[in-house]
Amino acid sequence: MTAVLAPRSDVRASSVFLALLRRDMRVARRDLPFFLLRTTMQPLMFVVVFGYLLPKMGFLDDSYTTALLPGVLAVSLALSSIQSVALPMVQDFGWTREIEDRLLAPVPIWLVAAEKIFAGVLQGVIAAVFVLPIARLIMGPIEYLSFANVGVVLFITVLGAAAFSALGLYLGTAISPQQIGLMFGVIVAPMIFFGCAYYPWQGLSAVPVMKYAVLINPLVYVAEGMRAALTPAAPHMSLLVVIIALFVITAIFWTLGMRSFLRRALG
Amino acid sequence: MVAGADVASESVRVRQRIGVVPQRPNADLSLNVIENLEFHAAYFGFSRAVSTQRANELLERLGLAEKKQSMVAQLSGGQQQRLMIVRALMHEPDIIFLDEPTVGLDPQARLDLWEILRDLHARGRTIVMTTHYMDEADRLCDRLAIIDEGRLLALDSPRALKAKAPGGTLLELMLDGEAAPAVEQAQTIGGLSRIEARNSTLRAYSDQGGRPLPAFIEAAESSGRTVKDIRLLQPSLETLFVSLTGRKLE
């Protein structure tokens, strides 16, 4: 114990960032089956009912699966990104206070939050990659499905996961632990049902008020972006609009989330 | 300034030089004991090899070696508190801050912790700790500050502070109502000084030990009150605290 082992020069922020990420990945790996169940169960059951059972019964046209598949991916990545950031935040700041050891690391505090968002993006991507083949398998052949734009699919996935991770940071730090149930009932559930995940945005032309009201919902842009990338021949929102909207949404929630995180961390 | 760095403008550098032991253990519940320590060291830029060796040494020294692979939730309160100390030492801080480290510990765990702190101190660590237990402060500290609601009331060695404690035994009577009416009557009693009332507590210093107590009680009861409890305190850090803050220790 007498040997001085401590590096007295400043610690590199990048190595601390990687250590934080390694910690989150180790915990996520242990939790993986539960994580996947938690975040993909709901969208996959939707796939079974609306992508398999109803078409089989003749209530729905087979072509509905074209609109459903990209939406299901969007929901999975949104749920997993939000949860993987918001739930630990609510717990850590609410009662366990275990994030304090990371807040004491010799790096600027915002880096700890940035790492959480980064880890949330990774987990969103993992959920989407997990759901895609299963959903395709359940639904059978899907009209217009094309993997020609894999790069665009990945880009939208990452951008969408970033938007929802940032939203998760904001919700996780702004909501008190007692109201975590409310977060799902009042924010996440309506977001999913009015997020154009289970129907294309163009379809809302039948209800013009809804068509414009849902534009405040970030999920709309992820679902429509997925449609633009995966089923480009089917109706979808312009990819440019989607990308701009997702950048703006990410920036807004990053700013709000960071402010809220710093307030909690220093409070 | 902490460890030669400005807290406001160089908070990152300060964090590198301090170790913190919180009042309530806040170990990473998703990790086991050794992982907690290795990751903590990694947050401070240590390599895996160095941190593993250091963690093993410290766990051994603080009697946690057998719990290395346990999840944090399986540890007792005292073990978790010791884990917090190990963690605070992982990055070789110059200064260790402990926030009421013995609250909620059983007497044996408390004594063990005192031993650990003495050992660290003997190894040249600066230790800053807060406590509500005056005996703990008296036994462990070189310099002692009495702080009440953010105000520094006294700062000196325990010996010098005890010398400043008001002379005589502190007599306290807890009454069943407002104590103020009894003050005048009590002032006629010989051997009592600095008689005061605070809510339902009647307080005086005696230079004859407990001898004036019967007369003091009588004075209180003659004002129509009933005495519910009695306390006698020898001059100590506790009587100094009471005389400085006007409050009892909670």
Q: Please, could you describe this protein's structure?
A:
The complex is a heterodimer of chains A (267) and B (250). Chain A has 267 residues and is mostly helical. Chain A has helices at 13-30, 32-57, 64-96, 100-103, 109-139, 150-174, 180-193, 208-213, 218-230, 239-266. In chain A, helix 1 (13-30) packs parallel to helix 5 and helix 3 packs parallel to helix 6 (150-174). Residues 1-7 of chain A have low confidence and may be disordered. With 250 residues, chain B is an alpha/beta fold. In chain B, strand 7 (192-198) and strand 8 form a beta hairpin. The model of chain B has no long low-confidence stretch (mean pLDDT 87). Chain B has helices at residues 11-17, 33-43, 48-61, 77-89, 107-122, 134-140, 158-164, 183-186, 213-222, 237-245, and strands at residues 18-21, 95-99, 126-130, 144-148, 151-156, 169-175, 192-198, 201-206, 227-233. A 4-stranded antiparallel beta sheet of chain B has the order 7-8-6-9, with helices on one face. A 3-stranded parallel beta sheet of chain B has the order 1-2-3. In chain B, strands 4-5 form a two-stranded antiparallel sheet. The A-B interface holds A 1, 4-7, 10-12, 15-16, 19-20, 22-23, 26-27, 30-31, 96-98, 100-102, 104-108 and B 12-13, 15-16, 18, 20, 22, 24, 26-31, 35-36, 39-40, 42-46, 50, 54, 57-58, 61, 87, 91-92, 123.
SS-based class of chain B: alpha/beta
Mass-distribution shape of chain A: elongated
Number of strands of chain B: 9
Spell the H/E element sequence of chain B. Answer: HEHHHEHEHEEHEHEEHEH
- Sheet having the most strands of chain B: 4 strands, antiparallel
The helicity of chain A comes to over 70%
- The SS-based structural class of chain A is mainly alpha
Order of helices and strands of chain A: HHHHHHHHHH
**How large a portion of the residues of chain B is in β-strands, by DSSP E?**
15-25%
Question: What's the layout of helices and strands?
Answer:
The complex is a heterodimer of chains A (267) and B (250).
Chain A: H1 13-30, H2 32-57, H3 64-96, H4 100-103, H5 109-139, H6 150-174, H7 180-193, H8 208-213, H9 218-230, H10 239-266
Helix pairs in contact in A: 1-5, 2-3, 2-5, 3-5, 3-6, 3-9, 5-6, 5-10, 6-9, 6-10, 9-10
Chain B: H1 11-17, E1 18-21, H2 33-43, H3 48-61, H4 77-89, E2 95-99, H5 107-122, E3 126-130, H6 134-140, E4 144-148, E5 151-156, H7 158-164, E6 169-175, H8 183-186, E7 192-198, E8 201-206, H9 213-222, E9 227-233, H10 237-245
Parallel strand pairs in B: 1-2, 2-3
Antiparallel strand pairs in B: 4-5, 6-8, 6-9, 7-8
